[in-house]
Amino acid sequence: xxxxxxxxxxxxxxxxxxxxxxxxxxxxxxxxxxxxxxxxxxxxxxxxxxxxxxxxxxxxxxxxxxxxxxxxxxxxxxxxxxxxxxxxxxxxxxxxxxxxxxxxxxxxxxxxxxxxxxxxxxxxxxxxxxxxxxxxxxxxxxxxxxxxxxxxxxxxxxxxxxxxxxxxxxxxxxxxxxxxxxxxxxxxxxxxxxxxxxxxxxxxxxxxxxxxxxxxxxxxxxxxxxxxxxxxxxxxxxxxxxxxxxxxxxxxxxxxxxxxxxxxxxxxxxxxxxxxxxxxxxxxxx
Length: 286
Known about the structure:
Number of helices: 9
Distance between the termini: 15 Å
Strand content: 15-25%
Strand order of the largest sheet: 10-9-8-7-3-6-5-4-11
Mean pLDDT: 96
Shape: globular
Low-confidence stretches: none
CATH class: Alpha Beta
Structural class: alpha+beta
Helix content: 25-40%
Largest sheet: 9 strands, mixed
Order of helices and strands: HEHEHEHHHEEEEEEEHHEH
CATH topology: Dihydrodipicolinate Reductase, domain 2
CATH superfamily: Dihydrodipicolinate Reductase, domain 2
Number of domains: 1
Radius of gyration: 19 Å
Number of strands: 11
């Protein structure tokens, strides 16, 4: 995806892409550079996240950022799903590049945390206005008959420069019937929830508010495509969605790597490692 985005910018095209922008640090840095070039060339570069388009979520975050929960003490993000079909591998990647099978392969899908849970993690970064500086955690492959290397189970604790604690819990197993993607914000005077499904709210204090998040997958994409169209037709090339999209991907990669290695890993060290994930394209036909 980073190579395709870079080629599109170099060819003079506008770019509309989905999350995650990349599965590794080099890819994230490449997207960042491609978007910077797009700005210089007056081209649009847009990354599609649905959660920040919802009017209820927007109002909750506005009240949060206006001090509606007091000082933020802790974030808790959750990504629960029934997982993705993970059949045996074949002679080449053709069978993995369809029906979301690729989510099970880290180099293709950025792992479960970077493909599904990332919506909730991005909401946390939306609230915080910054990415974390370190992470620690644990993860494992727990789904039955797994063939990909994706870790569907993870628990990660992120650290921020201001001391805020961010707990992330991810679980992708067949017995999970109702998906969950949300970000709980606990403050000194109130708490709030930003959600992909169900209610979003701010509870406690003078800024209480609640509403129902509805049909977000469809409506969020429609809103994003409309915004992209407006940006292109009106020559808007500031490309504000890219910065947090890159940071969200890096945050998920940081959590993935810290959890799989079961260590504390800083964002600085992750970026210094600059580890590339290789994808074997042997046997694929154009």
